[in-house]
Amino acid sequence: MKPTLKAICQAVAGAALAAAGGAAVQADEGMWLYNAPPRQLLQERHGFAPDDAWLQHVQQASVRFNSGGSGSFVSEDGLLISNHHVGADDLQKLSDAQHNYLRDGLQARTRAEEKRCLDLELNVLMSIEDVTARVKGAIQPGLSAEDAFAARRAVMAAIEKESLDKTGLRSDVVTLYQGGQYHLYRFKRYTDVRLVFAPEQQIAFYGGDPDNFEYPRFDLDICLFRAYENGRPAKIQHYLKWSTTGVAENELVFVSGHPGNTARQLTVAELEYQRDQRFPYTLARLNRLEVLLTAWSARSAENARRARDMLFGVQNSRKARDGMWAGLLDPQMLGGKVAAEQKLRAAVAACPTRQDTLSAWTRIAQAQQVIAGTHPVYGLLEGQHGFGSTLFGIARQLLRAPEERAKPNGDRLREFRDSNRESLELQLFSTEPIYDDFEQLKLADGLGWLIGQLGYAHPLVQQVLAGRAPRERAAELVTGTKVKDVAVRKRLYAGSPADGAAARDPLIELARLVDAEARRVRKIVEVQEEVKQQAYAQIAAARFVLEGTSGYPDATFTLRLAFGLAQGYDEDGRRIPYQTTLAGLYARAAEHNHLPPFDLPPRWIERQRKLDLTTPFNFVSTADIIGGNSGSPVVNRRGEFVGINFDGKTQALGLDYSYTDRQARAVSVNSQAILEALRKVYRADALADELVRGKAK
Amino acid sequence: MKPTLKAICQAVAGAALAAAGGAAVQADEGMWLYNAPPRQLLQERHGFAPDDAWLQHVQQASVRFNSGGSGSFVSEDGLLISNHHVGADDLQKLSDAQHNYLRDGLQARTRAEEKRCLDLELNVLMSIEDVTARVKGAIQPGLSAEDAFAARRAVMAAIEKESLDKTGLRSDVVTLYQGGQYHLYRFKRYTDVRLVFAPEQQIAFYGGDPDNFEYPRFDLDICLFRAYENGRPAKIQHYLKWSTTGVAENELVFVSGHPGNTARQLTVAELEYQRDQRFPYTLARLNRLEVLLTAWSARSAENARRARDMLFGVQNSRKARDGMWAGLLDPQMLGGKVAAEQKLRAAVAACPTRQDTLSAWTRIAQAQQVIAGTHPVYGLLEGQHGFGSTLFGIARQLLRAPEERAKPNGDRLREFRDSNRESLELQLFSTEPIYDDFEQLKLADGLGWLIGQLGYAHPLVQQVLAGRAPRERAAELVTGTKVKDVAVRKRLYAGSPADGAAARDPLIELARLVDAEARRVRKIVEVQEEVKQQAYAQIAAARFVLEGTSGYPDATFTLRLAFGLAQGYDEDGRRIPYQTTLAGLYARAAEHNHLPPFDLPPRWIERQRKLDLTTPFNFVSTADIIGGNSGSPVVNRRGEFVGINFDGKTQALGLDYSYTDRQARAVSVNSQAILEALRKVYRADALADELVRGKAK
């Protein structure tokens, strides 16, 4: 932020934005930073502003699932809750041909029955420090983009390493406002996390793909875990008190979680790139994978079990991206973005020192064009879309880790920095089951996708195929590799680059074959991202000046606080109430003659009469959420857990680009329904008691 | 065919091909022309050659379904049999929200209950006349490709019109050997065709997508129709006698049907185009449609019913094309093609008058490059992939018909030639049900595909969208058009181009908007196809000379005769027997716990004990078949119906490019199983009796 610009422009800006109608936040918009909460806005709109103690409590009760998702502590004995679809990765990895926990659920009746997740890491945000000045200070004016990128990567790695050495906490420098600010986030890590309870997927994801991203809903999308330390349940200071009264209509609620990725600050040039290249490519790839996995799953129950979590993820992504692409193809949405950008540029143009900032949009467009030029090679090689198997990812890590470790910390590819070592090793040495047939399927499909994108005659494609048909090549690679064996992984990881080469592992050799090109395109993208970051930082600085402090940065899978009202909406001339009940679940099943995906698990049929069917089940609120918020606690003014977010209604898919409270809604499970189901359907009274009391017996 | 070339080259050729190992047919290869049957080959391999009477009988008992597929007459009272999946189009169109004939089957107990198909046309081939000399004679040497195309189109239309006027029979000039020969086919048409019997889709397509193109199989893929003339069952002279003894192991069988399209004579340049552009494009489009239709079908039973036939077709095409693309990506297959082409070129090069023919491969490659340059615009606009709805197709016909009718017959787009008028009108005035929601879904998806392929900013895309989001635009077009009304269609079809313009129908206007560009790319393709046809004719002439008369042309959805042995095969070290039994069906259902797609229709469970479970159900043969052969009768030496072809085992998908009898097999339903099911499961004794007796009671 340049104070001179600020001083000079403030007066100008006021006039410009008044004319433009302002670009401030709308209604209950915002994924706010915990160190910059919208107290004034909250006070004005809802007559309540959380104090520091409230914020610290909710912040430290919030949990990030590094596998992708959010959660919260709900007992002093380490119990935490997230979504079933967040825990799906762990449920899948713990299952085998005899135990399908993902489909059938899991219920630990004793501590001993709690099952340790194979490679799950949880993070709790302990502190935030603004390191913008130090990061930006490391970039000398006049540096080339390439040198600036290297300097920035080095200073970030250094800050993280220092912090880790000093505090022992996981330390990540987070880029906010597309490079406008840099904050150091310190996390407490939990890596001994055990599964306590999961319902059947059929009730967690009731209504399946058709009801996904829709409302009204009837889903028990929950999964309970327990964090352990030193072999015993972790003692938790900040956990959320469980509400037994749920949420009232129009009540103010907060959502504390980790929205993954929004694009609200992006320039029109970037949005057009997404519309014209990224989404068509991604949707084509997801459609291909969905057909592949669906067809393979239909061949046998065991195939279906092996592919289940991946297929769910692919379908979920496909539906989300369909909606997001539809948002970009809506002339109203993009038209609004064009108008807003023109207003901001006009405001900047009205400012004497405007030239440099004004060129920021052009620089972003140019950088984006270079990035687009690497498309789709970047995704195919560095993004591994051309090799789509778990084993290839492992082989690449084993190739790169020894090479990268030999470099100074600040010069390494970012995932190999010292401060990320423990997290990297947790993943790499995971004992998750790997199935040859499934790996071959995915790898052969990846090779087909590579051929389709680059063309069969491309020299790299020819080298990759090595004279074989894709299926034949995939079979020889998967059956030939030794990296399935975790002991082999540990040995190669600890060894030198020469040891890796001497192993002559066919998959590592494949990773080596494409590595120069993969690194080359990655570097192009990284350098251009640096160009963009510098330009976005200037735009962000101008926006700070022009819009004051009312803004919040685009989501980056770091902790944010959203708020809103538990409120229904009008659709097609009908009022949709803010919450559903258990009775509605049974009505919906009957309406569809109990046919999939609207059938009910046997226990829910057997025990229907035990349930209080008036219990609120799911509810919506106007809080501003996006993918990654899955599993976020919904809390009331008193900081109590009143529900858990699990989805956004279709129109919320457009929230990637801009907020609206017209029909977009966050969809959550009510805290009361969770208790009712645990007690009456699952006979898990001990667990329900722990939730209500906030501690185990 | 140039006699001089022939005379000069014959000696040379003998030597060249002997050295090359010959490019003659292999084992039971061949989709033979009825006017050039492989009598000598059959006599040598199998000690039996059909005589003229045999050929005429089987030819005229064979039926082409113009909706795509084959069939045969099996009673003198007009009864004919095809596959359930060939009849699916008719079953779908006759169904409504209360009657799901496609899923549940249909059984007419009386003549009055036989349901007339809405727009089905059957063709029976009555005669073949070689018109090569007249067609080729119309192309003066030195004509430009454009003029040659026009001249060829004109002479073909003239021949067809003359023949129609003279005989009253549907008359089509068929292009064979990629332009090496032209034959005039005359067909008797049946347009009053009624549905008599269809089983449940679950037994017709037992095993679903997973078992499709696989073996062993257990499918009752049959559908029975009756042809009517003047409101009464047609009297049929040539119908197949039903065999009550089925087929013995290693027995010689014939398959008489309409293979749709093979690519065995294509040059390597064309195969590479298919591998690099056509298949990646087509598979991406099919994957997208499959996901769209599957997701939409899951929303309600009525959605599923409306989309059922289309979804089946999409899945079937996707699996077929996956296999065909895999064939093209197999270096062995393409390597064989490269070698064969080199041998043929070397043989031609050894021939004094070789220069002109030698350049044929280059001309084809160049033409193919131009055609590739229109890709994917041709598919999007002329192929309607960008507008994927039934209504758009109707609107385009209504736009073009008055324009084309104003031109001389020989100058029109080929589908509007006089000799095709009746068939065109049958389709255009069909009363098949059209659903607004389904049309909107398909049209919006088509628009999305158009955007993804051409880019959002493309001027034509912008004009097509008219400032709307795709879904909004699709909704406004579908709700606004009047062409749903058959009376409106008839009026606009009969009117002048000005009448069409005055109607201001939004879908016709959309068709008009893209028509100039659609016609432009079509013309490019047609002219380049002419270039290719001339070049292929030269290659074909050389091949005739070099390989003698042992060849057969690529499939063109015209009647062909294939032959082979009912024979099992070895796979993964196991011998797979040539036929399955009804007992195997129940075993397979049990093996999969009766879960979809391996569940059984209720009647098959109830009546299991009535069945003779030793009855042969499905069998395989080495006959050379491909898509379009579906429903072809399998006949024995005595010309009796012993089964009906319905599928090819996966390896048969490669048959598009070359024949192999290693594991590729034609899969058929045994004639005995049909009788057993009709009598015991469906209690359709009258129908079974008609099959056995060859006439109704």
Question: What's the gist of this structure?
Answer:
Chain A has 697 residues and is α+β, with helices and mostly antiparallel strands. In chain A, 49% of the residues lie in helices and 15% in strands.
Explain what the structure shows.
2 copies of one chain form a homodimer. The first copy, chain A, has a domain at 31-121 and 191-261 and 553-693: Thrombin, subunit H, CATH 2.40.10. Helices cover 49% and strands 15% of the residues of chain A. Chain A has 26 helices and 21 strands. In chain A, the strands form 3 sheets. In chain A, strands 2, 3, 4, 5, 6, 7, 8, 9, 10, 11 and 12 form an 11-stranded antiparallel β-sheet that branches. An 8-stranded antiparallel β-sheet of chain A has the order 1-14-13-19-20-21-18-17. In chain A, strands 15-16 form a two-stranded antiparallel sheet. In chain A, a hairpin with a 5-residue loop joins strand 3 (69-73) and strand 4 (79-82). Chains A and B meet through helix 9, helix 10, helix 11 and helix 17 of A and helix 9, helix 10, helix 11 and helix 17 of B.
Outline the low-pLDDT stretches of chain A: 1-5, 11-23
The first-level CATH class of the domain at 31-121 and 191-261 and 553-693 in chain A is given as Mainly Beta
What count of helical segments of chain A does DSSP give? 26
How many DSSP E strands of chain A? 21
How far from one another are the termini of chain A? 53 Å
The rounded Rg of chain A comes to 25 Å
* CATH architecture label of the domain at 31-121 and 191-261 and 553-693 in chain A: Beta Barrel
Chain pair sharing the greatest interface: A-B, 42 and 42 residues
Quick one: overall form of chain A? globular
Task: State the helical fraction of chain A.
Answer: 40-55%
The biggest sheet of chain A, with number of strands, parallel, antiparallel or mixed sense and barrel status, is:
11 strands, antiparallel
Strand content of chain A: 5-15%
CATH third-tier fold name of the domain at 31-121 and 191-261 and 553-693 in chain A: Thrombin, subunit H
Chain oligomer state: homodimer
- Based on helices, strands and strand pairing, what is the structural class of chain A? alpha+beta
Mean pLDDT of chain A: 93
